[in-house]
Design goal:
With about 575 residues, the chain is of the alpha/beta class. Strands 7-6-5-8-22-21-20 form a seven-stranded mixed beta sheet, with helices on both faces. It has a six-stranded parallel beta sheet with strand order 10-18-11-12-14-13. A three-stranded antiparallel beta sheet has the order 15-16-17, with no helix packed on it. The longest helix is centred in the last third of the chain and has 18 residues, at about 470-485. The chain is globular. Residues about 95-100 and about 560-584 have low confidence and may be disordered. The chain binds NADP nicotinamide-adenine-dinucleotide phosphate.
Length: about 575
């Protein structure tokens, strides 16, 4: 088999378009694309040309001769996607739609769009728009740094996934692209004002607020959310000073999606391994002193309903010491008898092969009794957090039984939800802005809200991978350009030059693309001395200062004005701020 897609597959489909023989599936025009856990190379059809390797933004595609031991399971995972065929038979070519974006009509003049949010959905949307001539895109973000959850949400020990920022950096260098970082839409500039300067505003503000677990004790110190924890390890300015107590040997994570696995993996990782990543200095120092020996990842349903994906489970079992107890092993075996779906079966087979925590069959634990471990636990419905002054444990129900676990840290990891965007309708139940193909819809009239669009998690909810946002953003951009061509968008009444002036007055610490590059350079050079990809600045003041220093060094660009702000936005109660900062 010439090439294999491995764990860090982002699913953006760049490889699909690059492949000359259409051997990578599901492709964005196929029904399974939206729900597939990764893309797969057909071992019989691949001609070993390597075009996909070049196109992949996260280095997920590897020649079969270069796979590491940890990547070997992906040979079977790729092949298993394709049905068995008679020897030598090739898969018939399926349709592979090239991304078709209606070009803005020349007679309509240039198109100018504001994109709010510089995470993957915003960046893919900007890039898609800029595939056409005479388009300008201004990308706004409340943080001084771009790329949303790629910087603040992807675990630091997943550097390949974070490598997608290289693609985003290239996008930001396109003609017609402008960053307005450290600018909060709704505070420094309103939706209406954006529409005065642009034909349309496309919101890609994500859904990075944690879903809250409604049980007693959530207010206790030691109880928090995976969202906060992930922001803390990633040096998010709103979470830099988060008090994370790691003094108890057991931590509990509630929920078993990929975020829960990220949290469990980081809590049990060898600190020296993390020291080679871009983890925040504060988190690294705390993890070096950590007393945590076991993290229990508690799911309310059974093994067959595990929310984590197969690639992430395989990644976890190769990086960490993962165990089951005997009651859960019995559940795995029972589910295996009934499971039909091949991906679910494959997950259950990985689970069935895990060592047992309570039969003495855990050879790794015998060899390394001090090694930190992750226990995957099932059928535990959270009931309440135990403790009076601080978290002392977690109470679950399991059928008729009550189960108590001692723990000093309880993190809920039960998914994300969106928050309303000022001036737009909102669907509280789904946590998204109501829309049709990305056009914001007013539920009262059923009609589109003129000039307002959404892409990414605020459009479709918090599911999928980084690359899922590419096809999502493409659909929104196609609708937007269609509206522009059909004269449904109002021409801006003010010039772009006036936008700069307006924002500079309201936010003197506005950071542009050159400012971000100065921050990026400074972080990389700080990290280089320690063998790390970067050492992050974790306060707004430091980020603004780094942008300013870079501007002085480069004589131009960087910060678009003088004066320091931002200190007042950090410190004190943290969660709402983290969430609001992450999301826009
Ligand atoms: P998720 O995949 O939706 O998982 C949420 C988990 O919370 C599920 O186990 C769910 O259980 C549980 N849950 C929900 N409500 C609960 C409640 N009231 N009590 C107990 N448990 C509850 O969410 P996520 O882990 O936050 O991930 C969000 C998205 O980001 C996913 O698409 C994920 O794949 C993606 N992501 C990907 C990566 C990666 O590829 N490396 C990393 C991080 C995130 P039920 O199933 O029983 O509802």
């Amino acid at each position: 088999m010439p090439h294999v897609i491995t764990q860090s597959c982002c699913g953006d489909g760049s490889c699909v378009y690059a492949c000359p023989v259409n051997c990578i599936h599901p492709s964005p025009d196929e029904p399974g694309f939206g729900t597939a856990e990764m893309l797969h190379i057909d071992p019989d059809a691949c001609v070993d040309c390597g075009a996909c390797v070049t196109a992949c933004p996260v280095g997920a595609i590897v020649a079969d001769t270069r796979l590491t031991a940890a990547q070997l399971p992906f040979v079977d995972i790729n092949a298993a996607y394709y049905p068995p065929r008679p020897d030598g038979a090739k898969v018939p070519p399926t349709t592979k739609l090239a991304p078709v974006l209606p070009a803005p009509r020349p007679e309509r003049g240039g198109l100018t769009v504001a994109v709010v949010g510089s995470g993957p959905a915003g960046m893919y949307a900007a890039d898609e728009l800029l595939t056409q001539a005479r388009v300008r895109v201004n990308v706004f973000d409340a943080l001084p740094t771009p790329y949303g959850l790629v910087r603040s949400g992807v675990a630091p020990d997943h550097p390949r996934t974070k490598a997608i920022t290289g693609l985003f950096d290239r996008m930001s260098r396109r003609d017609g692209f402008r960053f307005y970082l450290n600018v909060t839409v709704g505070q420094h500039i309103s939706h209406e004002e954006l529409l005065e300067h642009h034909h349309a505003v496309l919101y890609a503000v994500g859904a990075a607020h944690e879903r809250r677990l409604d049980v007693e004790g959530m207010h206790l110190p030691g109880a928090g959310s995976a969202t906060e924890f992930v922001a803390w390890i990633n040096g998010h300015p709103g979470a830099a000073a988060l008090p994370v107590d790691l003094n108890h040997p057991t931590a509990v994570v509630i929920g078993n999606g990929n975020v829960a696995l990220d949290v469990a993996r980081i809590l049990t990782a060898e600190p020296e391994r993390l020291a080679a990543t871009d983890i925040s200095d504060a988190a690294l120092a705390a993890l070096r002193m950590s007393a945590v020996r076991e993290v229990v990842v508690a799911a309310r349903r059974g093994p067959a309903e595990s929310a984590f994906t197969l690639p992430e489970l395989i990644g976890l079992t190769t990086s960490s010491h993962v165990v089951l107890d005997e009651a859960d092993r019995a559940l795995v075996h029972a589910d295996l008898l009934a499971a039909k779906d091949p991906v679910t079966r494959a997950k259950l087979e990985v689970l069935a092969a895990l060592p047992s925590v309570d039969t003495g069959a855990d050879a790794d634990a015998a060899a390394e009794p001090d090694r930190r471990r992750i226990r995957l636990a099932y059928r535990l419905t959270p009931a309440r957090i135990l403790g009076t002054d601080r978290t002392e444990g977690m109470q679950f129900t399991r059928g008729e039984q009550t189960v108590h676990l001692d723990a000093g840290l309880v993190l809920t990891s039960i998914g994300y939800c969106g928050r309303p965007v000022a001036g737009l309708p909102f669907d509280d139940a789904a946590g998204v802005v109501p829309n049709a193909d990305g056009r914001v819809i007013d539920p009262a009239t059923g009609r589109p809200v003129a000039g307002a669009y959404v892409a990414g998690w605020i459009k479709r909810g918090p599911t999928g991978f980084i690359g899922t946002n590419k096809s999502c953003a493409m659909k929104t951009v196609a609708a937007l350009v269609d509206d522009f061509n059909d004269g449904r968008l109002v021409d801006p009444v003010r010039r772009t030059a006036l936008l700069d002036k307006l924002i500079r007055v309201r936010q003197p610490d506005l950071i542009d693309a050159a400012g971000w590059r100065a921050i990026d350079d400074a972080e990389r050079s700080r990290g280089a001395g320690e063998g790390r990809p970067r050492a992050k600045f974790t306060t707004v003041a430091d980020l603004v200062a780094a942008a300013r220093t870079g501007r002085s060094a480069r004589r131009g660009g960087g910060l678009m004005g003088g004066g320091l702000m931002g200190g007042g936005l950090i410190g004190g109660g943290h969660m709402d701020r983290i969430a609001s900062w992450i999301s826009s």
